[in-house]
Amino acid sequence: MTHSSPFGKDSRVRILKQHLAESGTVTAQDAWRFIYRELLWIDGSTGLAHLYESDKAQPGRPWYDRSVVFTNMLCDRFGGISRDDLKLHIDRLFRACLEILVQGHGAEGEDEDLAETLTALRTVRFESSGPKSQTTSDSERDVLTYTPDVSLVMEFAALLQQHTKMPQPEAESFARELVARARVYFTVERKRQNVLGEGFEDLLQLLVTKIGRVPDKYIRVRQLANHLPGFQNANNTRARIEAPDLAIVKDECTKLLASVKWSLRHDRQKQLSDELDCYADLLSQQAFPRYVLITNEYDPGRLVNSDGLSRRGQRVDCIYHVNLELLLGALHDHERIRDIRPLISSGRLRSIADFFTDMSEAYAA
Hints:
By secondary structure, this protein is α/β, with parallel strands linked by helices. 53% of the residues lie in helices and 10% in strands. It contains 14 helices and ten strands. Mean pLDDT is 86; it is low at 123-136 and 140-146.
């Protein structure tokens, strides 16, 4: 019997609907808070809210101080809570998916490997005893104690002894930590990225319906562009057809195309360019739809570069960011903040609240 994944669309949407119902009224102005509660997470290597790539956000590097500012601002805006309390307020979608996996049965493929890791970590936590370091989190203690793949540990230990001349007991201890951390990374953290990308799209679809009051029949999610009205150019010879993350279709005309990207690393900026090129190539309706980018990117250079993308006379009409106030606060010391302010003042960079307001004004039933 095939079981649907706890991380699949059906599961994600069911969880998000439940959380939305439990949250009471969510307005355009506080939608960012709900988005962060569901999708933002704590970087296990720093204990701070994840703002940027982990390797660039370590102590001594510029993005570490920005992550501290960002985390402190979040704690303040969530009611003056502590950083420990913040962990309990965010990452709700992924944690709920994990809970379903651990409680369920019949996990297959990657889910089975992940369930095995989580079960082992839970056993470690339950059985742990002795003094606890005040500076080490539960998850860090679990990783240090959990010892999967003993044969791989011994191979790593041998390499450490061979190349660093590390004594055997130290080499084996270090190897256990490396293997345990790698196991968690390749199961838990990699799965998080999958949930984050599509979960962001699912969440926006729900909020566009609830806050923007846009009828479901107008909304298309991840549908190939040549299946949308207005994109049936008979001369098209493209081998690859892009699928907008979110589209609004009304009166048999595609009104809006949205690219939804939590972050905008180089590969995703390339994808934006490919999308524009595809839509321009397929266009068969008279007017090109409004094309927008919705993101939580905090790197000013990436935001500026994305704003400047242009293909065949078409460009991004507007970038909507989850929270502009937190963006400006986190970038207080970044020299390129001067490039962000003009985008905001010109309306090229707007807030997620503006997105829901715009959708309501244009398409509400």
